[in-house]
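Researcher: For the record, we're logging two predictions in this thread. I'll number them. Prediction 1 follows.
Model: Prediction 1, sequence and structure:
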Amino acid sequence: MRFGFVKVAAATPSLRVADVAYNAEKIAEAIGEADKAGVQLLVFPELSISGYTCGDLFGQQSLLDGCAEALRALAERTAGIGMLVFVGVPVRLGGALYNCAAALNGGKVIAFVPKTYLPNYAEFYERRNFRPYTGENTSVGFYGAQVPFGNKFVFAEGQTPDFTVAAELCEDLWAAIPPSSFHAQAGANIIVNLSASDETAGKAEYRRLLVRAQSAKCVCGYVYADAGEGESTTDMVFSGHDIIAENGEIVKESALFQTGLTVSEIDAEKLAGERRRINTFGDGQLPAGYAAVPFAAYREDGALTRAVPKLPFLPQAGGLRERAERILSIQCAGLKKRLAHTGAKRAVLGISGGLDSALALLVTVRAFDLLGKDRADICAVTMPCFGTTDKTYQNSLRLMRALGVSVRTVDIAGTVRSHFKDIGHDEGVRNAAYENAQARMRTMVLMDIANDADGLVVGTGDLSELALGWATYNGDHMSMYGVNASVPKTLVKYLVAYEAERLGGDAEAVLQDILHTEISPELLPPEAGKIAQKTEELVGPYELHDFFLYHAVRCGTAPKKVLFLAETAFAGVYDAATVKKWLVRFYRRFFSQQFKRSCLPDGVKVGSVGLSPRGDWRMPSDACVQGWLKELE
C-alpha cells in the first residue's frame, strides 16, 4: 500500500488435530481469501499445520512427514502473490524436533524460526516433544534446498524499506525478555507471533495487555495469531484470540471463539519515524548475529480499512472523563507550583467570554483551592472594546460570579482611541494596527494590574493558536505563565465541557453557552449585535488544523500523507479541495509564525505535542516552507 501502510492479517482457520490434509486445505483457503483482501503479511497460529494439541503424536514419523509435504505445497501456493506468510510447523534438525514458524514467500519456504522458550508448567508440556533453540542461525535441508534456520532473522521487503518483520512464538512473548525485544533493535518494525494460548478466565485481558505493552516497548506493529476451534479439548479450550497492535494501541482484534481473518493495516513508516524520534531506542548494545532474509510483498493497491481518528488529541476508546481530569490536574499542578514559587498573592486573568479564557480561569480556581487561597484573590478582568458583543461580555461576568472570583471591568475603548491619536492611526482604517492595538492594550492592562496587586498574569492562549501564529505578538501572545500552552483547541472544548458537567449549577449554564459561541478574537465591530470576526472562517476549522498539527509535528508525517489521512478521516465532512486548501494554509502559517513561538512564556506540557522553544520544538524562525508545499502541488 501507499504511504508506508502494510496490510496485515492474523488467521485462525478451523482445524482437526493431526489431520494435516484438512488443515493444509483450510490454510490454503485462508491464503486465497487474504490475497483477495490485498494482505501483504499473513500469520497463522502455532503448529497450525498439525494442530498444537497432538501430544505424543509429534513422535510419529507419519505426522512429521505429512507436515513437511503439506508445508511444501503451501509454499507453492504463495507463488505469484505479493504476500509473506507464516505458518506453524514441527521441524526436524540434528536429532531434535523444533516448534517453528515457517516463512513462505514467492513459492518457497524462505526461513524457519524455532521457538526460544518452551513452557513446561501447569497445562503445558512442550519440552516432552520439542527442544528450545538458543543457537546461532544455521540452515536445514528441505526438499533439496538449504533453508535458513534460526531465531535471529529480520525479513526485509525489497521495495518498501520500512516493511521489516521478525517472528516469535507464543511463550516467547511471556518471557522476561521476549525475543521480539532483540528483533526490534535489530530493525524489525513488525513482529508476528504464532501462538496457541489456551483460554481461561481473565487470560484474554492479560494477553491483550502483553501484546499492547510489547508493541509499545518495541515501538512496533504486532500481529498475534491464536489457535482456536478444532484443537483438542481434552484439558484445554482455545479461543482464536487474534490481535493486531501498533505502538501500544490495539488496531483490531477478533472476537473470542470465532474463526477467520482479522485484517487491518500497520503504519510501518510511522513506526520507523517514531524510532528515530526516540533517540534512546537502540542505545544499548545492538544484538549480534542477525541476518536479513529478503522477500517480495509489494502491493500498490488496497484501501485503508483502519480508522483514522478525526480528533487525535482525544482518547479514542472511552476514558475521556479520566483523561480530562488528568489534564486539568497537570495544568493545575503547574500553576500551583509557579504561584507558590513566586510568592504571588494574586492571579490576574483576562476573561473574554470565550473558551480559552474560561479554561484558564477554571484551572486557576483549582490551583487556588489546592493552595488554600481565597478565590477572591483571583482578579478576573473583562476588557470590552470595539468588537465585544453583549453576549460575550455578559458571559464573562456570569462565569466570574459563578466561580466566586473578583470581578473587574476595564473598558479600554477610550485608551485605544487615545493610542490611535498618539500614533496617527485613523480609526476608520481597520487593519492589523486597529486590531492588535486592542490586544496589546489588554495585555498591558493585565500586566499593570498584576504589578499593582502583587499578582501573576495567567495566559489563556492555546496550542492551536500557537501553531498557526493566531496571536498578537506581545499581546495575548504574552503572559507570566501559560496554562493552556500545550492544549489544542479541540481538547479545550472537551475540558470545558467536562468541567461544566462536574461543576453544575450556574457555572455549567454559562460554560455551555460559551461552548456554543463562535470562536472569535472580537477585534472588529459586531454586525447587528453579533460576532463579525469568526476565526474558523479566517484561518480554517480547528478540527482540521489540530489534525494537521498532530500528524505533521507529533508524527513527522510528510504533507502528501497528511493530506491522504485527512481526506480519509474527514470523508463526507470536507471535500478534498477544502482539506488541501487548509493544509496549505496550515504549513504556510506554521513556518511563517515560528518567531512568535521562539519567545514564549513558560507553560506546562500536558500531552505528546508541545511547541515550547525550551521543550519539544526547536525550529529556525526563518526556515523555508517551499519543500513542504511542493509536495502538495
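Researcher: Logged. Prediction 2.
Model: Prediction 2, sequence and structure:
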Amino acid sequence: MSTQNEEQLKKQRERFLSFSFAASDLLLEIDDLGKITYALGSIKKFTGKESASDLLGQHWLEIFIPKDRMTLEHMVTKAAPGHRCGPSLTSLQHLIGSNKEESEKKSNVVISAIKMPDKPQTYIGIATSNTLIDQLGNTCVISGDKIHDKESFIDSAQQTLRIAKDIGQDVDLSMIHLPGAEKAQNRFGKEAWSNLSEGINNLLRDYSIDGNSAATLGAGHFTLLHTSDVDIEELVEKFSGISKEHDPFNEGLDVDIKNITADTRDMDERDIARALFYTLNEFERRGTNVADELDTLSSSLKVFVTANVSKIREFKNIVQNLDFQMHFQPIVELRTRECNHYEMLCRFREGNTYEWIVFGEGIGMAAEFDFAVCRQALNYIDTKRWNTNESYSINVSGQSIADKAFLIKLNKAIDLHKNIKHRIILEITESTQIRDLDFVGRVIKSFQNKGIRIALDDFGAGAASFQYLSNMHVDYVKIDGKFIKNILNETRDMVLVKNIAQMCKDLDVKVVGEFVENKEIAALLLELGIDYGQGYFFGKPSPAPDYKKPSRR
C-alpha cells in the first residue's frame, strides 16, 4: 500500500474519531468476537479502569448491566456498514457518583454503534445521559420487564416511525400469532407460563427496532416494529424454540408470523395512528391473514377509510348531538389531601372511548370533537355546579389548540359563560401535534389574561416536552403516568420525576402526578416535591364530582 493511501486512511480514521466524539464521551472499537481492541475517552469514569490498556481484550458487554446485554448484543449485530444503530438508553455496570447517594444509583448512558465499510471492527459510542437525553432515550429504552399494550404501542410507534422516516430507515410491522396459546396455559402451569411470557417479551424487545417497539395484544397475539432485514424464518424458529423450552411436555406452540411494510412516506402521525389501529384490530379479529390484504400501512389507511363510511357518519352525529357523558376524577393536593380540581373525562355511551377519539382524530374531526366536549363541560359547570367554587380541567388536543377556527368558537363559548372562567383549566393533550410553538404560546397567554389556567398533559413523554415548557408558560404540568406507576421500584423514574419537580418549582409551575395507585406512591411524590396527585388511590372517574378524602392511616 502506498504512503499516500496510508496517509488518507489515517486522516479518515482521525475524522471518524472526531465525528464520534462530537456526540460521545467514550469510544470503543470491538472485533468480531466482541473483544475491545481500542478505547478512547472517559475510561475511568465509565468503567472504573485506569487506562485503555486495562480494557483491551475484555468483552464490551461486561461494561453494562446484565439484563441489558442480550438486547445490546442484538443491536450491534444489526449495525450495517456506514449505518448507525441506536441511540439506545441503558445503564453501566460501573457506578458513577461523587457521594454515597449518587453511587447507589445506576448510571444511565446512551449508546450507538456503527461499522466502518470493508472493516471487521464495530465502533461503540457511549454518551453521558441526563434528564433531557433520557427524554430522547425513552423511545429507545432497553431496560424494563414489560412491553406495550395496544394503546401505548400505537402512541410510541407514531414517534418511532416518524424518526425512521426522517433518517431513511426501512421498517416492517410483524404480526405474530400463537394459535391455541390460551388453551395451552393449563398444560404449561402457572410458573412455566410466566417464564414463557417473560421469554417472549425479551425476544420481542431483542428484535424490535429500538428495544421498545413491541406489544402484546392478548389471546396469543403480538406485534413488533423492526428493521426490514430481520429474518422472519429465524424469528419463527426462536418463538417455537422458546415455547418448547418452557413446555413441560416439550410440545411447544404453533407460530404464525406475517409482515407488512411500514411505509409512511405520505402519512402524517394521525394517518399512522388510524392505520395502526385498523391493522391491529383486524389482526386480532382475523389473524395474520389480514397481511394478505393489507401489505403496507398506507394500504391499511385506504381500506380503513373505505370501510368506515357509516362509522364516520355515526361519529359526526355523536359530536353534533353531544351524545356522550362526562366523568370526573379528582386531582388532589398531596400535602392536605384536599381536592384541588376535577378532570372532566369523556365517555361514549357505546364502544371504546379511546378508539372513538383516535377514530375522530384519524378522520380529521379532532377540533370538532374537542369543541363538543368544551360545550358540554361549560354547560355542566354553569348549570349544575354554579353554586360551588369547584374548578374543572377540560381536555383540548394539541391539534385543536393550534386550530384558529376552533379557537374562535371556543372563545365565543367561554364568553357566554364568563362568570365561571376563573374555574376553568384547559388541559392540552397530545402536545406532539403542536408545530407552531410561538403561536400556541400566544394563545395560552390570551386565555390566561381571561383568568383561565392552562395545564400541559403527559409531560416527559417525548423529547420535546422541555421545549414546550420553554415556549408555553403554563400553570400546571402533568407528569406522564408511565414514570409514576413504577416509581417505587425504578430509580431512573424517581430521579426523572424529582428533576421535573425541581425544574417546575424554579419556573413557578405546579406539578400533577398521574397513576397514584396507593398511599406509598402518594407519600413518595410529596417527598419529591410534587404538588398534586391523580389516580385510583384518590378516586376513579365517576359520573359525578364526589371526592372523599382518604384516611392517612
